[in-house]
Amino acid sequence: MLAEALEHLVRGIVDYPEDVVVRERGGRRGTTLEVRVHPEDLGRVIGRQGRTAKALRTVIGALAGRDQVRVDLSEA
Questions:
Q1: Which long-range contacts (CB under 8 A, 24 or more apart) does 51-58 make?
Q2: What Gene Ontology molecular-function terms does this entry list (predicted)?
Q3: Which residues, given as ranges, of the chain have pLDDT below 50?
Q4: Is the pTM above the cut of 0.70?
């Protein structure tokens, strides 16, 4: 559910929504959501001084509740 929500949010921000890929991995410290976007969209997803990325992490953290979730952003 978290991966789908994050993918939906990121697709609404970027210019190349077909290049958005969200992959979920489990680990000892909780779940990691890896977001890959088109290289031209990376700055748009990160935002000025990381504000957009921080907002995405806040929303996903709120949806996760008590579960530990980490969001990593990178270009495809």
A1: 52/13, 56/6, 56/9, 56/10
A2: RNA binding
A3: none
A4: yes
